[in-house]
């Protein structure tokens, strides 16, 4: 579970509710179901018109990833590539085949399989880069849906405002003056709902999905570099150190101090010893 996403949404809603209670004489006036229906219903209706149903189905399945703490272990991928390089140098391709089924990363599994199948390096790079491009296009399209929803929500908030203003102006000339306040509330609250949904829900989700895509693409590019070195029959130590440097800016090694630094160094020395 990604606590930052949940904490951010709850904190935003909490601050909005707190500001309402501190500044309003009658807080329940901020609860306006017709205005909320206009914004939420209009936003989802416009989204259904804008995108195919099949594409939207994939988006809602991916939405769960926003609330999950998806940690990608770069060190595990580096170890798998270094281990494959060690076995390949020893001519033990059968053991590499056996270990392929235990590799959790399908992209890495495909890359190593292509190497042990003696696929030309240029073709390997083309295949892997095509998969990276396809991943980025697919996941950016998913994030784009939420960017579009973040535009629709304030637009339908403005629509609700116009509806409320028309009803309010029409009521001024009528005998029932009590509906003027109700219509004015609808007019103002729909804009408020649209702004909240856009800037607290839809746009942050889109940004989070885009950042997740970029992180996955970075790991995949690292695997491509490791695969090139594996195909070139480079030493396991060279591969491990090069890929560790490649991913250093994503893993803050400077946080380790004192005994924890010693433990990390011991672990790294143990991994390097296994490469020979």
Automatic annotation (TrEMBL):
Keyword rRNA-binding: no
Family membership noted in the UniProt record: Belongs to the MotA family.
MotA/TolQ/ExbB proton channel domain segment(s): 103-221
GO CC terms of this entry: plasma membrane
Ranges for region Disordered: 251-276
Subcellular location field: Cell membrane
Transmembrane segments: 7-25, 31-51, 143-172, 184-202
InterPro entries in alphabetical order: Flag_MotA_CS, MotA-like, MotA_ExbB_proton_chnl
Predominant location category: membrane
GO term, biological process aspect, one: chemotaxis
Pfam families membership: MotA_ExbB (PF01618)
Membrane topology: Multi-pass membrane protein
Biased composition (Low complexity): 256-267
Name of the featured protein: MotA/TolQ/ExbB proton channel
Species this chain originates from: Mariprofundus ferrooxydans PV-1
PANTHER family xrefs: CHEMOTAXIS PROTEIN MOTA, MOTILITY PROTEIN A
Keywords recorded for this protein, A-Z: Cell membrane, Flagellar rotation, Membrane, Transmembrane, Transmembrane helix, Transport
């Amino acid at each position: 579970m990604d606590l930052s996403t949940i904490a951010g949404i709850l904190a935003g809603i909490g601050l909005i509710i707190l500001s309402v209670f501190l500044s309003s004489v009658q807080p329940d006036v901020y609860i306006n179901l017709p205005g909320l229906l206009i914004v939420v219903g209009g936003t989802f209706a416009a989204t259904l018109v804008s995108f195919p149903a099949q594409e939207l189905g994939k988006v809602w399945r991916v939405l769960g990833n926003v609330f999950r703490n998806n940690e990608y272990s770069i060190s595990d991928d580096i170890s798998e590539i270094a281990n494959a390089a060690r076995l390949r140098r020893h001519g033990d391709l059968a053991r590499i085949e056996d270990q392929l089924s235990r590799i959790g990363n399908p992209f890495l599994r495909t890359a190593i399989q292509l190497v042990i199948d003696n696929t030309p390096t240029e073709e390997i790079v083309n295949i892997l880069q095509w998969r990276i491009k396809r991943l980025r296009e697919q996941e950016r399209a998913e994030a784009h849906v939420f960017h579009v929803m973040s535009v629709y929500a304030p637009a339908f908030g403005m629509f609700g405002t116009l509806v409320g203003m028309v009803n309010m102006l029409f009521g001024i000339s009528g005998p029932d003056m009590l509906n003027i306040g109700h219509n004015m509330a609808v007019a103002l609250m729909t804009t408020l709902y649209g702004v909240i949904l856009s800037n607290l829900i839809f746009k942050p989700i889109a940004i989070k999905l885009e950042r997740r895509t970029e992180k996955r693409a970075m790991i995949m590019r690292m695997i491509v570099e490791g695969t090139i070195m594996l195909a070139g029959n480079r030493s396991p130590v060279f591969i491990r150190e090069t890929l560790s440097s490649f991913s250093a800016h994503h893993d803050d090694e400077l946080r380790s101090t004192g005994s924890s630094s010693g433990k990390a160094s011991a672990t790294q020395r143990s991994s390097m010893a296994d490469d020979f």
